[in-house]
Write a structure and sequence with these properties.
The complex is a heterodimer of chains A (about 600) and B (about 475). Chain A is of the alpha+beta class. Chain B is elongated, with a radius of gyration of 25 Å. Classes of the chains: A alpha+beta (about 600), B alpha/beta (about 475). At the A-B interface, strand 1, helix 1, helix 4, helix 6 and helix 11 of A face strand 6, strand 12, helix 6, helix 7 and helix 10 of B. Bound molecules: adenosine-5'-triphosphate (ATP) and magnesium ion.
């Protein structure tokens, strides 16, 4: 694989190496540096110097050490065996690394991402001769119970398929088809490679039409995301970014989840690795790990590999999208990625822009988020990538560059609020500062399933919350007692909505996930409670008395009492609310 | 700059890398530049001997053809360009590790300051290596500290990194001392040790801790690394790494449960900023380097547990918040890496409440898996969540009362104020030597919560109310 020495180390500054070039090198070419053959990537070429960002610890690296080319840009391996795996930022398989090197990640290890020894049953789906182009599906492999892996012609290939392997077990390196292009014959293996920094092609962009259901009420009901959409979750430390990302990874209705732990805690990855295999997907009843791929470049792992981790993740996501799947990508946290970019840029002595970040930060952010979307794949199916990026603003201040630039490229914003988190209101997604531009895209889907009530119910509750915010300003000055009952009812209902609906306990078995029906019925009950209580008050009833009806307590507990299978039974609670308050109005008016 | 190689013709291949040179090109603060050298690696140890032959240690920060930049841990005062001898060791900074280190006190670089012999043992690279995430074991066993605010609401878990965010003059010392004295796993006798790293702290502060360990009879389980305020600031940069190297050995080689106290991380960060400034690096916030997050992570992430190994490293770093500002880069970035934080609050301290652990901003992220039935008690999670929520409401009502006066508050609001008082005076407050059992803490939580009407307790089930409310 070594293409010979292309230069020597001239200078080492942390993860950045300046090399004296002795042969032609290409931008973004993959190289191996020094005796440990540390993996690196050429990021700048200037005269006879080349700058390399090195994905492993450079301790002990010396000027004069040789540098070899790998003859290709930084690429990932794509093929069966990725699902359920955990990889570092340059796609080294962490489980295999552990088997080889022990509990600590030392440098210089080179283990291929896909297990070379594993056999997969390949089932051909086409018959030669056949003219094929990139993206054509030629067969399948059942990768996990949940994921049927489509075997595709690599995107840039085309030709006459004249031979295909019969159904049997194959290794990922085995040839499973042969193409003829002009006079050349090309082997197609059971896996392919793709450079991480280049988006994989598709046929066309499609409009968004379906929500990505997350099972999180505040998200699905107030700030939904469409399949193929992009969302950012900014929040100071401890406000719940990772919890939101984990909840989505567990419960969202994507076919496949790529979770990128980018510069975050080791224990959080361990948590996923221990919890997910035990959790079952509510839709399929299978273990969640069968639809999850983890990229883990934790905060103490090399910073350059952190920079690539999000590209590694999104490229894998695109590959599965190309099979016609709906993929969700979680990146926690893109701020750590931006900081890696800043650190590398600083070490290369580039001109800094805002707060030391390089001037190309917004371009890179845009490029990353653009790789999400709803598309028609090369093989003609509709598929999506939904990207949810966490941002960790310094001091929790959203005016900083990463939050601000990201905001330009995403269409939903789930702002995590320190005050809410401090009061243990989780998820601490602020209903005042968050927004979603996907509401129109997903409206039809919801309306069809909610008797066309969804928008009305939503707007009712949003208006209650807005009025509450205004009233709270008054209350802060003079107390709630001076308000008339009709206004105190707003405070009361807002309180019910916050406690009974918006708050959702990720640790409670029943509450962790709310299906669409449960969300709709809960919303309906609270809106009805509001309507009836308002009428009662208008008819002269006292809020204090209404508030004492046991229905309030029942509504407060409904999220725990009715699981998703029994969401239909919530209609009983609705009736009960009607009875309780109707009776009230008549008896007391 | 007239640097010349002193020929050390050493036949041995391993020693061939040990090159010695006379003279330096530049000295600037704690950073030196050396030219006319070769075969020097990045992040490797440098010995620098002044004209009198006194040796100090440093590490290369940047290497280039024929030149290197190094930081000198023990400061550069007294170094002259011409007479300084520089020797490159060809290895990273290391620390010898062995069981014999228990009971000993060293400086930040691992040299004895207790009059005892040099540390001996297997040399380990102080930088450590990242734990493979697949090798980690998720921490789940709670540590009882005997302090209600921690055990009840911010439970510490074995293998967790839980810093104390303090301010100048706040009693973090007493709190850390109390934690190290009282911390235990109920019903388990496992070998434990305390590794203490003091960075830039004053002599009397260090003595306070040492005395505390002596009194509790834990001295022979303690390894201390002290880089005091009068030591050159750069030494602080190695101190936590030396300490954690020993902690890793005790935990993962010898199977001990190691409580690691790192104080004060703000001093550590200042030293890092100093080096960065001298090197004219592009600063991010408040002059701290852009890589502060990664650097801190390389320390904090060395807490945890590893599958199939019996020991653990629990970290309790102390971070003082300059001006009590929690958004200052050091507490802020720490909070982004650690698994929660115990925040000390000046207002509580001024009202004579010890420990002045702030109710709302404090958080233990690993608490959820360490508490509940079979571990602490089934009602623990709900109780803690309710205490947080109710106390948050108390804060709102106090703010309101300060505007409209207490008289105009509603009866319910008054009940909340009563709860707030009880919570602070009875639940939070406790003596420096008061060691409460988990049971006592939880019962106390219920007792103060019973100042509120049961309808207000949304986060608690009816069954729990029947069982514990008003008891
Ligand atoms: N939905 C939820 N249900 C219950 N607890 C929650 C929820 N969301 C957050 N929390 C609590 O908040 C803590 C912090 O959440 P999380 O780790 O997600 O924060 P974060 O924003 O990712 O912080 P950092 O930026 O430091 O990584 C959790 O450990 C948990 O205790
Ligand atoms: Mg997080």
């Amino acid at each position: 694989m070594d293409e010979g020495v292309i230069g020597k180390v001239k200078r080492v500054v942390g993860p950045v190496v300046e090399a004296r070039r002795e042969a032609q090198v290409e931008m973004l070419e993959l190289v191996l540096v020094g005796e440990h053959r540390l993996i690196g990537e050429v990021v700048r070429i200037q005269g006879d110097s080349a700058w390399i960002q090195v994905y492993e610890d450079t301790t002990g690296l010396r000027p004069g050490a040789p540098i070899w080319s790998r003859g290709e840009p930084l690429s990932v391996e794509l093929g069966p065996g990725l699902v359920g795996g955990i990889y570092d930022g340059v796609q080294r398989p962490l489980s295999a690394l552990r088997a080889q090197m022990g509990d600590f990640v030392s440098k210089g290890a080179q283990v291929p991402a896909l297990d070379r020894g594993k056999l997969w049953r390949f089932i051909p789906e086409v018959k030669p001769p056949l003219s094929v182009t990139g993206g054509c599906i030629i067969g399948r492999v059942q990768e996990t119970e949940l994921i049927e892996h489509k075997v595709m012609i690599p995107p840039l290939l085309a030709g006459e398929l004249f031979e295909i392997a019969p159904e049997a077990e194959y290794h990922v390196e085995d040839t499973i088809a042969r193409l003829r292009f002009d006079t050349r014959s090309i082997d197609v293996a059971l896996h392919q490679r793709w450079p991480v920094r280049v988006p994989r092609p598709y046929m066309a962009r499609l409009p968004h039409s379906m929500p990505l259901l997350t099972g999180q009420r505040v998200i699905d009901t107030l700030f939904p995301v469409a399949r193929g959409g992009v969302v950012v979750v900014p929040g100071g430390f401890g406000t719940g970014k990772t919890m939101v990302q984990h909840a989505l990874a567990k419960w969202c209705d994507a076919d496949l989840v790529v979770y990128i732990g980018c510069g975050e805690r080791g224990n959080e990855m361990t948590e996923v690795l221990t919890d997910f295999p035990k959790l079952t997907d509510p839709r399929t009843g299978r273990s969640l790990m069968e639809r999850t791929i983890l990229i883990a470049n934790t905060s103490n792992m090399p910073v350059a590999a952190r920079e690539t981790s999000i590209y590694t993740g999104i490229t894998i996501a695109e590959y599965y999208r190309d099979m016609g799947l709906h993929v969700a990508v979680m990146a926690d946290s893109t701020s750590r990625w931006a900081e890696a970019l800043r650190e590398l840029s600083g070490r290369m002595e580039e001109m800094p822009a805002d707060e030391g970040f390089p001037a190309y930060l917004p371009t890179r952010l845009a490029e990353f988020y653009e790789r999400a979307g709803a598309v028609r794949t090369l093989s003609g199916s509709e598929a999506t990538i939904t990207t949810i990026g966490a941002v960790s603003p310094p001091g929790g201040d959203f005016s900083e560059p990463v939050t601000q630039h990201t905001k330009r490229f995403v269409r939903a914003f789930w702002a995590l609020d320190k005050q809410l988190a401090n009061a243990r209101h989780y998820p601490a997604i602020s209903w005042m500062d968050s927004y979603s531009e996907y509401i129109e895209d997903v409206e039809d889907w919801w309306m069809e399933r909610t008797n066309h009530e969804w928008q009305k119910l939503r707007t009712t509750m949003i208006s209650v919350m807005q009025q509450e915010a205004r009233l709270q300003r008054v209350v802060k000055l003079v107390g709630a007692d001076v308000l008339p009952d009709s206004q105190r009812l707003i405070l009361e209902i807002a309180n019910v909505f916050k406690n009974a609906f918006l708050q959702q306990n990720a640790y409670d078995k029943v509450d962790a996930y709310s299906g669409a029906e449960k969300q709709y019925r809960m919303l309906q009950i609270i809106a009805e409670l509001y309507k009836l209580a308002a009428e009662a008050i208008k008819n002269g009833a006292a809020l204090e008395d209404i508030r004492k009806t046991p229905i309030f307590t029942e509504v407060m507990q409904m999220k725990y009492q009715y699981d998703n299978e029994n969401a239909g039974r919530l209609s009983g609670l609705l009736e009960k609310a009607r009875e309780a308050l109707h009776g009230y109005t008549n008896d007391n008016a | 700059m007239g640097t010349q190689t002193i020929m050390h013709e050493l036949g041995n291949q391993a020693l061939a890398n040990r090159r010695e040179y006379l003279g330096m090109a530049e000295v600037s603060g704690p950073v030196v530049a050396i030219r006319g050298i070769h075969n020097v690696g990045y992040n490797e140890l440098v010995e620098i001997a002044d004209g009198q032959g006194n040796t100090r240690l440093g590490i290369t920060l940047e290497v280039a053809e024929g030149a290197a930049i190094a930081q000198v841990f023990e400061g550069t005062s007294g170094l002259a360009l011409e007479t300084t001898r520089v020797r490159f060791r060809g290895t990273p900074q290391t620390m010898p590790v062995s069981e014999e280190l228990l009971g000993r006190t060293f400086d930040g670089l691992g040299r004895p300051i207790d009059g005892g012999p040099e540390a001996i043992g297997e040399d380990r690279d102080v930088n450590g290596l990242p734990v493979n995430p697949t090798a980690r074991a998720y921490p789940r066993k709670f540590i009882q500290t005997g302090i209600s605010a921690i055990d009840g609401m911010n439970t510490l878990v074995r293998g967790q990194k839980l810093p104390i965010f303090s301010g100048s003059g706040l009693p973090h010392r007493q709190l850390v001392a109390q934690i190290t004295r009282q911390a235990k796993i109920v019903g388990e006798e496992a070998p434990f040790a305390v590794v203490f790293a003091g960075m830039g702290i004053k002599h009397d502060e260090a003595m306070f801790y040492i005395k505390n360990f002596e009194q509790s009879g834990a001295m022979e389980r303690l390894v201390a690394f002290l880089s005091l305020a009068d030591a050159p600031s750069v030494e602080r940069l190695v101190t936590p790494r030396t300490a954690l190297t020993v902690a890793e050995f005790l935990a993962f080689d010898l199977g001990m449960h190691v409580l690691t106290v790192l104080t004060d991380m703000t001093n550590y960060c200042e030293a890092l900023r100093e080096i960065s400034t001298v090197r004219a690096e592009i600063p991010s916030r408040k002059g701290y380097p852009g890589y502060l997050y990664s650097d801190l992570a390389s320390i904090y992430e060395r807490a945890g547990m590893i599958k199939d190994r019996p020991g653990s490293i629990t970290q309790v770093p102390v971070v003082t918040m300059p001006n009590d500002d929690i958004s200052h880069p050091v507490p802020d970035l720490s909070g982004y890496i650690t698994e929660g934080q115990i925040v000390l609050e000046r207002d509580l301290a001024q009202r004579g409440i010890y420990p002045p652990i702030a109710g709302l901003p404090s958080l233990s992220r690993l608490m959820k898996d360490g508490i509940g039935e079979g571990m602490t008690r089934a009602d623990h999670a709900h109780l803690a969540s309710q205490l947080f929520a109710a106390y948050a409401h108390v804060k709102d009502i106090r703010a309101l009362a300060s505007v409209i006066g207490e008289e105009d508050l509603s009866p319910l609001d008054h009940q909340y104020l009563k709860f707030g008082e009880a919570f602070e005076q009875r639940f939070l407050s406790q003596g420096h030597d008061e060691d409460r059992s988990m049971e006592q803490t939880l019962n106390l939580g219920w007792s103060v919560l019973s100042a509120l009407p049961p309808e207000e307790l949304h986060r608690i089930t009816e069954e729990e109310i029947r069982k514990y409310y008003g008891k």
